[in-house]
Design goal:
By secondary structure, the chain is an alpha/beta fold. It has two domains: about 260 residues, Aminopeptidase (3-Layer(aba) Sandwich); about 150 residues, Glucose Oxidase, domain 1, CATH 3.50.30. Helices cover about 30% and strands about 25% of the residues. The protein is built from eleven helices and 17 strands. Strands 1, 2, 4, 9, 10, 13, 14, 15, 16 and 17 form a ten-stranded mixed sheet that branches. Helix 3 runs parallel beside helix 7 and helix 4 packs antiparallel against helix 5.
């Protein structure tokens, strides 16, 4: 009896593991978030390796090229943080877990200097009177000279003050930022990002747990490389439909934040999952002719500011006026709480169609409505008048732009239903 109970207990885990191993989408997510792709960023050719992989899948599924290549190549500036180390009070901090470097930071090596502690209370009090604020600025500008600057953890009731506090170092003159660090302690989640420019400041964002009133800055290193013309490429494939006069675009960005030193930002949910969803639709419609011709696009450099999609819109390989609808997928690794759709309050007819399909088939818990937002690759198209949705899943562990966004952290239980929902939507739109 006890062995039967043990089998009953272990069976769900075995089935789930087996499903993951056999599932095409999971295999794509696992591959793209692996060490081999180095976080799909600007080091170790991670982003371009990903583009090559998508093109290989497009060719395998028989997608047509627009022109003589699946690629649309272009160049862009990028500030690449190659390595970063920080040691405080005798403890070596872990990148991505304990601290991050501002993505616009310049290269910097340790110099022993006194520490200047910025006083957030004095800053807040000075805002009550113009003369007090002028005195505060004068005092601050004098006291911070030739010192490391430390911003203690502090939260203001007014959010605009929090932003002002966070960006105060930008008021320091560039020549004053040589050979020193600016260290900002915070209770906020460490969210990594990218920058297309290089600043005069070398700034560290550190978990507040490492702050003390008697801080010792023992060591730090930032190694970076600024590249004016880093070469990247979008990936475009086409499936001819019964109606070739109109197009439906299916898009997802395939890049992520890359690698700093030995720390990889896997980007399984954001957006290996969306890339896998794009490829799942490519696979299906390559075997089932769609009503309208489909153009499927994997965008590069979304994380640096929607760079790939902006470039495509400005140098479009298709007639934007022929686009009947665009579906952009970004963060598709959950779904237990349903999905949210940006622009669904704008394109209500399409939203109602999607909702009706979902209600009839009971695919997802809910489809939440949201207004317009320029927060993913649909935006450059929408600004040109292209009807578009940006879909992302709800639920999951919430790992975002961090080192914990791994394939193992995802629950793809709703992935198949998501695919069925949008296949039916594409067929009926």
């Amino acid at each position: 009896m006890k062995y039967r109970f043990l089998l009953f207990f272990l069976l769900p885990f075995f089935v789930f593991a087996q499903k993951k191993d056999d599932d095409y989408a999971y295999s794509v997510i696992e591959k793209l978030s692996s060490e081999a792709f180095a976080g799909r960023g600007f080091v170790e050719y991670g982003m371009n390796k990903t583009a090559d992989f998508i093109a290989e899948e497009f060719e395998k599924f028989g997608l047509k090229k627009i022109g003589d290549s699946y690629f649309q190549e272009f160049s862009m500036p990028i500030n690449i943080i190659e390595n970063a180390q920080l040691k405080l009070n005798g403890k070596e901090l872990k990148y991505g877990e304990d601290f991050l470097v501002d993505p616009a930071s310049k290269a910097q090596s340790f110099h022993s200097r006194p520490i200047y502690y910025f006083n957030p209370n004095d800053f807040a009090n000075s805002l009550n009177k113009e003369s007090d604020f002028i005195d505060f600025i004068r005092t601050d500008m004098l006291q911070q000279k030739e010192k490391h600057v430390v911003f203690p953890p502090h939260s203001f009731e007014v959010d605009s003050l929090n932003q002002y506090y966070k960006h105060w170092p930008h008021f320091y003159r560039p020549e004053e930022n040589k050979n020193r660090a600016v260290i900002y302690f915070s209770s906020d989640k460490l969210i990594a990002s990218l920058s297309q420019k290089q600043d005069s400041i070398t700034r560290f964002f550190v978990n507040e747990n490492f702050y003390t009133d008697s801080l010792s800055i023992d060591n730090y290193v930032v190694e970076n490389k600024f590249v004016n013309d880093f070469k990247v490429k979008n990936v475009i494939g086409m499936i001819e439909g019964e109606n070739t006069d109109s197009l439906i675009l299916i898009t997802a960005h395939f890049d992520h934040l890359g690698k700093v030193g030995n720390t990889i930002f896997p980007g399984a949910s954001d957006n290996a999952s969306g890339t896998a969803f794009l490829l799942e639709l490519a696979k299906y419609f390559s075997q089932h002719k769609p009503k309208y011709s489909l153009v499927l696009i994997g965008f590069a450099a979304e994380e640096a500011g929607l760079v790939g999609s902006k470039y495509f819109v400005e140098n479009s390989l298709v007639d934007l006026a022929k686009i009947k609808f665009l579906l952009n997928f970004d963060i598709m690794g959950a779904g237990e709480e349903g999905i949210q759709i940006v622009n669904s309050s704008v394109f209500t007819k399409e939203y109602e169609l999607l909702n009706q399909i979902n209600s009839n088939k009971n695919y997802l818990k809910q489809i939440k409505k949201r207004g317009e937002a320029c927060n993913s690759d649909h935006c450059p198209f929408y600004e040109k008048g292209v009807p578009s949705f940006f879909t992302y899943t709800l639920g999951g562990p919430g790992h975002y732009h961090d080192v914990y966004d791994t394939a193992e952290s995802l629950n793809l239980a709703e992935f198949e239903d998501l695919k069925k929902l949008f296949i039916e939507f594409i067929d009926k739109i």
